[in-house]
User: Which sequence fits this backbone?
């Protein structure tokens, strides 16, 4: 989103004040679906239905592979099936090189479509200034073809209409640009127009975030454009505009103001029921999805029950937990037998990985991270492997073998965001120590400070982070064990904070970096979630 940075502190203070206890589906019931659907960071959802199967794409910013793709048969139980791309771009910002980075940029706000037997995903990236369109005949296992457009179309919704293709996009003014029929390029001489001027105006006069996040649906001869806006001193608000023609004229309404639940689109079921698939900013855990019942009145969608998003849904959930959106891993990929290993889909790399610096076959049964260069700290480090944290509580444990670390090497387990903390091992000329470190990135400067240090008398150690998101406590604590059974806390608790420079919920992160000499190696035996 486009924000005036002077208002950032006020925005996130407002989010914190709206805290309230909520329960995820897996903690409350195995049968009745509940909101939030997924208590983990799945922002900017774009949902379609093909027959009786639903598909969703989402945003993962600077993480790779990118644009996660999920499927469901009931709108509440979701399975991660892949990604639209392995890496989006090369260059220093994408590889954390020469002081450049793409934190909080990368790919934003995708659109997902199915047209004439083919799936399409559009997204855009602020660090490249481009819009990307991926397409495949098989969303679950096919190859994705890629087209690049040398223009940035903000929060675009891909539209196929009457044999033509378009992107509907913009911030406050909502615009339409025509693409070639295969949606691979802007059509020379094609339509380019503004369809809604000052789309925010129906929600007020002053805004922290003007109208954006366009998603288009069609029903009963009307085109519906879902947008969000954030009125100053208010909450994120869902807007809907409708028109008989894609080009307008449009009329609009405020359709939902409830706890900031907004941004997404409309989706119908084979039985004819309608829902809005939206998300809510929920502190450090990130932006979490909600499913909102919709009924129709005079061809206008009416969101929620008495204007509120219900806690329970009339849908049966068959899935316990978050499915494969998060996953433990023993790193036993021996059956694959080559370096071209596809890790479990829950894993994403922080920025582009360096293939020469990681392996699960060099030492079978371990994730080996070999330091390829000298770095200053955690946020500079390539080959940091991450998974989402999740609520209401999450615990991750790793077993780390430090035998092959070199003096000056640091490796461990982190709570990753711009304001971060980690528990790890630092190797020195005289031995090794367990350390707990906190740090933050602010105004393009990173400060990192050691909070605790304990001598490590052996080469294998168990590291653990415990995260508490109940009532938006947003606290992480750091632990170690020498035997995997008896645990000791180390350092201080981290007050986790969702910040715009990284623009994503906290991640568990496995990392290793060198401060003196490349070539050292950290071997992770397992990663376990509770």
Assistant:
């Amino acid at each position: 989103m486009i924000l005036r940075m002077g208002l950032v502190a006020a925005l996130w203070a407002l989010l914190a004040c709206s805290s309230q206890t909520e329960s995820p589906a897996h903690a409350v019931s195995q049968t009745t679906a509940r909101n939030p659907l997924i208590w983990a960071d799945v922002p900017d959802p774009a949902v379609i239905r093909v027959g009786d199967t639903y598909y969703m794409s989402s945003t993962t910013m600077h993480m790779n592979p990118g644009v996660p793709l999920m499927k469901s048969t009931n709108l509440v139980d979701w399975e991660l099936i892949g990604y639209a791309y392995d890496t989006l771009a090369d260059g220093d910002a994408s590889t954390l090189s020469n002081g450049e980075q793409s934190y909080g940029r990368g790919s934003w706000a995708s659109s997902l479509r199915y047209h004439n037997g083919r799936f399409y995903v559009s997204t855009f990236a602020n660090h490249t200034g481009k819009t990307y369109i991926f397409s495949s005949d098989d969303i679950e296992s096919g190859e994705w073809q890629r087209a690049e457009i040398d223009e940035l179309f903000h929060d675009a919704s891909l539209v196929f209409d009457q044999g033509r293709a378009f992107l509907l996009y913009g911030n406050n003014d909502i615009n339409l640009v025509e693409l070639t029929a295969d949606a691979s390029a802007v059509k020379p001489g094609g339509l380019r127009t503004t369809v809604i001027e000052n789309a925010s105006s129906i929600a007020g006069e002053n805004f922290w975030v003007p109208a954006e996040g366009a998603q288009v649906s069609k029903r009963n001869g009307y085109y519906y454009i879902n947008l969000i806006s954030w009125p100053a001193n208010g909450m994120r608000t869902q807007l809907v505009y409708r028109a008989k023609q894609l080009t307008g004229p449009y009329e609009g309404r405020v359709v939902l103001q409830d706890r900031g639940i907004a941004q997404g689109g409309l989706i119908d079921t084979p039985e004819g029921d309608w829902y809005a698939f939206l998300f809510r900013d929920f502190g450090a855990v990130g932006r979490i999805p909600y499913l909102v019942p919709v009924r129709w009145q005079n061809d206008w969608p009416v969101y929620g029950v008495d204007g509120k998003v219900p806690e329970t849904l009339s849908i049966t959930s068959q899935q316990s937990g978050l499915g494969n959106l998060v996953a433990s891993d023993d790193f036993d990929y021996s059956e694959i037998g080559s370096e071209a290993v596809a890790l479990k889909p829950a894993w994403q790399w922080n920025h582009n990985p360096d293939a020469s610096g990681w392996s699960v076959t060099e030492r079978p049964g371990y994730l080996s991270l070999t330091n390829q260069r000298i770095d200053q700290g955690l946020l500079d480090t390539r080959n940091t492997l991450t998974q989402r944290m999740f609520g209401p509580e999450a615990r991750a444990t790793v077993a780390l073998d430090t035998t092959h670390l070199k003096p000056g090497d640091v490796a461990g387990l982190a709570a990753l965001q711009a304001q971060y903390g980690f528990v790890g091992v630092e190797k020195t000329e005289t031995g090794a120590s367990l350390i707990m470190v906190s740090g933050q990135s602010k105004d393009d400067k990173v400060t990192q400070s050691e909070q605790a240090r304990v001598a490590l008398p052996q080469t294998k150690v168990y590291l653990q982070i415990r995260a508490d998101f109940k009532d938006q406590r947003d606290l992480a604590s750091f632990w170690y064990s020498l035997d995997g059974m008896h645990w000791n806390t180390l350092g201080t608790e981290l007050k986790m904070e969702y910040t715009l420079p990284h623009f994503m919920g906290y991640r568990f992160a496995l990392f290793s970096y060198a401060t003196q000499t490349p070539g050292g190696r950290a071997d992770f035996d397992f990663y376990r979630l509770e």
Summary: The chain is about 5% helix and 50% strand. The first strand starts at residue 32 and ends at 34. Residues 348-529 form a domain with the Jelly Rolls fold (CATH 2.60.120.200). Residues 6 and 492 are 30 Å apart (CA to CA).
